[in-house]
Design brief:
With 438 residues, the chain is α/β, with parallel strands linked by helices. The chain contains 11 helices and 19 strands. A 7-stranded mixed β-sheet has the order 6-7-8-5-11-14-15. It has a 4-stranded mixed β-sheet with strand order 9-10-12-13. Strands 1-4 form a two-stranded parallel ribbon. Helix 4 packs across helix 11 and helix 6 packs parallel to helix 7. The longest helix has 43 residues. The protein is globular and about 55 Å long.
C-alpha cells in the first residue's frame, strides 16, 4: 500500500493561515457592522425621542395648529429667503403661522397704557391663541432683534436709538390710536418706568422717552380733512359734514414731525353717501357724494398739504392701508355665525378677501399716494389683516366708557365690535412692518 506523504496539501483545501485571516476579517466586519448598527439605532432612538418630545409640546394644540406648524419649516427655511428689502419685499404675500414658543413683548396688564376698549384679556376674554400667530413673508424675512426672529420681530432698543432726539406722530382714527398704543407698549418694554411720561388729551397725546429726548405722539383726525364730528364724535354718521378741501386746522399740529404715520378709512365707510361742503361749516348748502368720491377729494387735499409743506430730506411719511373689518361671517364660510363673535382661529384660505375692505377705496389710496411729489410709503397691511377674524375685541370691550355687562355680552348681534383689535394683537404686526421700513 502506497502511503501519501504527510506534508502533501489536500486538493481544494485552503492553508490554515488563510482560513485564520478570513475568519478574522469576517469577525472585524461583524464588529464594524454591529457598531454601525448600534450607532444607527442610537440615531433613530434619539430621533424618535425628539419626535415624541415635539408631539408632547404640540399635542395640546388643535389639530389645525399642528398642521400649520409644519408650514414655516417647509416654506420658510432661512436659505430660501432674503433679508428684508422694502424695494423688493412684498408684505402682502405671506401666511400666518402659529408660534407656540412666542414670548409676548407686553400684555394688557404689563403695559399701563393700553386703553380698556382694547384690553381683551383684562376684560375677560377666555381664549388666548389669537396672541401667538406670526405673519411670515413668502419671499423674505422681517428684521429681528437680538433674539431669534421667532422670539422678537421688533427691537425696542434699536427703535429708540433711531428716534433719539426726534418726534414721531401717528395721525388718524381709533384704529390708528390702537397702532400708536401698540408702538408705545413695544418700546416701553425697554424703558425704566421713571424714564418715560405720558400725557393724553382728546386731540393730541404724547408719550416721551425722556433719556432719548424722543416723543411718540397721536393726533386725532379720523378723516384727515376737517369735519364737524372731529370733536363731537357722538354726532353720528347722519349728522357728519366734511370740509373736503380743508386740512389746515389739523395740519398745524403735524408740522415739525420727523416721522409721520397716517391712516384714514373706516369712518369714510359709515354709509354709502357722505355730506361734503366747500364753504364754511354752518352753510345750508352741502352736497352728498359717494363715499369713494369724497374719499378721493379728501385724500387729495391731504396729499396737496404734504407735497407743499413736507421736506422729504427731513421727514419720512407713511400711510397705513385699510384695516379690515369682519362683519359678515358668511364671507369666510361661517354660516349662522355672528360676525367675529366666538372666532378663535384665523381664516386660513390663502389670498382670502372678504367684504370688510373696499377694493375701490384701496385703489383710490394707492393712486393718490402714487402721484405725490413727496415720497410716501404705503404700508399695505390689508391682506394680512383680512385673515384675522379671530383678533377683534368682539364683546370683550367697552361702550360709552363702561365695560359691556353680562347681558350685553350675551347679545353679540348688538354689541360685538368687529372693527377694533385686541392688544397685544394684529397692530403689533403692523408695527413690525413699520419697524422694518424705519
Amino acid at each position: 500500500m502506497v502511503q501519501v506523504p504527510a506534508m502533501k496539501r489536500v486538493k481544494g483545501r485552503a492553508p490554515l493561515s488563510v482560513v485564520v485571516a478570513i475568519i478574522g476579517g469576517l469577525a472585524l466586519a461583524g464588529i464594524i457592522f454591529t457598531e454601525d448598527l448600534r450607532s444607527l439605532t442610537e440615531i433613530m432612538d434619539k430621533k424618535k425621542e425628539k419626535q415624541e418630545e415635539e408631539e408632547k409640546r404640540t399635542s395640546s394644540l388643535p389639530a389645525r395648529a399642528r398642521m400649520m406648524l409644519t408650514r414655516p419649516v417647509q416654506e420658510a427655511t432661512p436659505a430660501a429667503k432674503e433679508a428684508f428689502d422694502p424695494r423688493r419685499c412684498s408684505t402682502t404675500e405671506g401666511y400666518w403661522a402659529y408660534n407656540w414658543t412666542k414670548r409676548l413683548p407686553y400684555t394688557d396688564q404689563t403695559c399701563p397704557f393700553v386703553d380698556r376698549q382694547i384690553s381683551c384679556q383684562r376684560n375677560g376674554r377666555p381664549d388666548s391663541d389669537y396672541l401667538y400667530w406670526d405673519w411670515h413673508l413668502d419671499g423674505c424675512t422681517l428684521p429681528s432683534g437680538p433674539l431669534s426672529i421667532r422670539e422678537r420681530r421688533f427691537d425696542p432698543a434699536a427703535v429708540l436709538e433711531k428716534l433719539r432726539g426726534k418726534r414721531m406722530l401717528f395721525v388718524g382714527d381709533s384704529l390708528q390710536m390702537g397702532q400708536w398704543l401698540s408702538f408705545v407698549c413695544l418700546v416701553n418694554s425697554a424703558l425704566h418706568y421713571s424714564a418715560r411720561t405720558m400725557e393724553r388729551t382728546t386731540t393730541l397725546s404724547v408719550f416721551t422717552a425722556t433719556e432719548y429726548n424722543a416723543t411718540i405722539e397721536f393726533y386725532w383726525a379720523p378723516f384727515l380733512v376737517e369735519a364737524n364730528s372731529d370733536r363731537n364724535i357722538r354726532l353720528g354718521a347722519g349728522g357728519r359734514v366734511l370740509h373736503v378741501d380743508a386740512v389746515e386746522l389739523h395740519a398745524k399740529h403735524w408740522e415739525g414731525a420727523d416721522i409721520l404715520v397716517f391712516d384714514s378709512y373706516v369712518w369714510w365707510m359709515s354709509g354709502s353717501r357722505i355730506k361734503a361742503v366747500w364753504g364754511a361749516f354752518g352753510d345750508d348748502g352741502y352736497e352728498e357724494l359717494d363715499a369713494w368720491v369724497a374719499f378721493r377729494l379728501g385724500l387729495k387735499t391731504w396729499a396737496n398739504w404734504v407735497d407743499a409743506n413736507i421736506d422729504p430730506n427731513a421727514t419720512r411719511v407713511f400711510f397705513m392701508s385699510i384695516s379690515t373689518t369682519h362683519m359678515r361671517s358668511e364671507d369666510w364660510g361661517r354660516d349662522g355665525g355672528i360676525r367675529c363673535y366666538n372666532e378663535t382661529w384665523p381664516i386660513t384660505r390663502r389670498g382670502y378677501w372678504g367684504s370688510g375692505a373696499d377694493r375701490r377705496m384701496m385703489e383710490v389710496m394707492s393712486d393718490v399716494v402714487g402721484r405725490m411729489r413727496v415720497p410716501v410709503t404705503l404700508l399695505n397691511v390689508t391682506q394680512l389683516t383680512e385673515h384675522r377674524a379671530d383678533a377683534h375685541v368682539s364683546v370683550y370691550t367697552e361702550t360709552g366708557g363702561e365695560l359691556l355687562t353680562a347681558a350685553q355680552r350675551a347679545d353679540p348681534r348688538a354689541h360685538a365690535d368687529c372693527i377694533h383689535w385686541c392688544l397685544p394683537g394684529v397692530p403689533d404686526t403692523w408695527n413690525q412692518i413699520l419697524y422694518a421700513h424705519l
